[in-house]
Design goal:
Elements: E1 4-7, H1 11-22, E2 30-34, H2 41-46, E3 52-53, E4 73-74, H3 75-88, E5 92-95, E6 99-104, E7 111-115, E8 119-122, E9 125-127, E10 150-151, E11 163-167, H4 171-182, E12 186-191, H5 201-212, E13 216-220, E14 224-230, E15 233-238, E16 243-245, E17 248-251, H6 259-264, E18 269-270, E19 273-274, E20 287-289, H7 292-295, H8 302-321
Parallel strand pairs: 1-2, 1-9, 2-5, 9-20, 10-17, 11-12, 11-17, 12-13
Antiparallel strand pairs: 3-4, 6-7, 7-8, 14-15, 15-16, 18-19
Helix pairs in contact: 1-8, 4-5
Length: about 325
């Protein structure tokens, strides 16, 4: 029997475990389940080595309210900090374990969390799985013959001295452009809107400066309508009617929240957003959403992840664990 089971070992999930330990919950009664083989999968996969992991994101003030706190840091520094948090607080993480069902008992405050490797009983479940597990893909078909040249992140494939099209208008799109330019690539950004309203101020100003200096070509108010295989390279057609061949196309279209999973476990929604009560508790008593899932459309951050865990822990102690968790 666990006091809390946490699904997801990213910043929010790790922070939730740390807050549980700080509240006095014994290490053996706190369990983190992570489907990947390492923690912080999204940071490892989608962040280039020299990209800062920004604590303050889209206008959120970087003020820490809980046990964990981290200012803007490199990818390595962020992962090292989370490594130490797991080690120093004796956090138990089961890696490579996939949650496929959460059964809510009707006669008492209890869940059975079922995975591909076992079952775990707990009165409290915290879901911190993030929103980038499956990147958004374009609506038009993509040729399988050039799959290796159509990317959704830029850490798995070395891209240098190439002609690259980045598609998107959010922070990841700006950061990809900056990173690719620094690596000697000829970079073009295509965004369907005429203004870059989805980026934080730093990323927008940096990208616009690159555009003004002619170091990144900005195609604003233009969208991609089709991609074809042109002798092993992607030929991109735009709404302007023009077509151009690139070495690579990088899609930075964001990720969709795992709504299906949340709805299957019984969480109620108001339109596209899950209904959240005090302390980020869902419509299911004892089930909490953390990190990006609790931030809604405005987006989350490292500090938001940490703080959401601290806020949720206060609610958990009050309602489910008592003032002195055992």
């Amino acid at each position: 029997m666990h006091s809390i089971v946490i699904i997801g070992a990213g910043p929010a999930g790790i922070s939730m475990a740390v807050e549980s330990r700080a509240a006095g919950v014994p290490a053996e009664r706190v369990l983190v389940l992570e489907k990947a083989n390492e923690h912080s999968f999204a940071i490892r996969k989608y962040y280039p080595e020299n990209k800062l992991v920004t604590a303050n994101y889209k206008g959120f003030e970087a003020v820490c309210t809980g046990t964990l706190c981290l200012l803007d840091s490199t990818k390595h520094e962020t992962l090292s900090y989370l490594d130490r948090a797991i080690r120093d607080h004796d956090v138990h993480v089961h890696y490579g374990e996939i949650v496929w069902k959460i059964h809510q008992h009707q006669d008492r405050q209890l869940f059975t969390v079922m995975t591909d490797k076992g079952e775990y009983e707990t009165p409290v479940v915290a879901i911190a799985i993030g929103i980038l597990g499956k990147p958004n893909k374009p609506s038009y078909p993509l040729p399988l013959s050039i799959k290796s040249r159509l990317l959704y992140e830029i850490t798995s494939t070395e891209v240098r001295d190439a002609k690259v099209l980045v598609v998107g208008g959010g922070d990841s799109a700006s950061e990809y452009c900056q990173y690719l330019f620094q690596d000697g690539n000829r970079v073009t950004l295509s965004y369907r809107k005429a203004e870059l309203t989805r980026m934080n101020d730093i990323n927008r100003d940096s990208l616009l400066a690159l555009g003004q200096r002619g170091e990144v070509r900005l195609l604003l108010g233009t969208d991609v309508t089709a991609v074809k295989d042109r002798e092993g390279r992607p030929e991109v057609s735009f709404t302007s009617g023009e077509a151009e061949v690139f070495d690579y196309v990088v899609y930075a279209l964001g990720g969709s929240a795992p709504h299906d999973f949340l709805k299957v476990v019984g969480i109620e929604f108001d339109g596209p957003e899950p209904i959240l009560k005090e302390g980020y508790e869902t419509s299911v008593p004892g089930m909490f959403l953390l990190g990006d899932l609790s931030a809604g459309r405005k987006g989350g951050s490292i500090i938001w992840a940490f703080n959401s865990a601290n806020t949720a822990m206060k609610r958990i102690c009050e309602r489910y664990l008592g003032s002195a968790p055992a």
